[in-house]
Design goal:
By secondary structure, this protein is mostly beta strands. Helices cover 0% and strands 41% of the residues. The protein contains no helices and six strands. Pfam families: A2L_zn_ribbon.
Length: 74
């Protein structure tokens, strides 16, 4: 898996989105976490899992459209 960052975007292989690579590590695999701007949430690209649960607001512009896994195509 190739991960790059530039101009406010992150590219994971051929998957590109607005966000940034963080220094914080995944508690499971110790991979760097990534912030995904569209969903205002952090995830581990190696585990392909969110580090935070969705909020309980059904009208939330971030959580209501968030896919089950971060690296899911829109």
């Amino acid at each position: 898996m190739k991960i790059t960052e530039g101009y406010g975007k992150v590219m994971i292989d051929d998957f590109e989105f607005y966000g940034e690579i963080k220094q914080d590590k995944c508690s499971k695999c110790k991979y760097n976490l990534v912030y995904y701007d569209d969903f205002d949430s952090y995830f581990c690209p190696n585990c392909n899992s969110w580090t935070e649960s969705k909020c309980s607001d059904p009208t939330c512009k971030y959580c209501s459209n968030r896919p089950e896994t971060p690296l899911t195509r829109k």
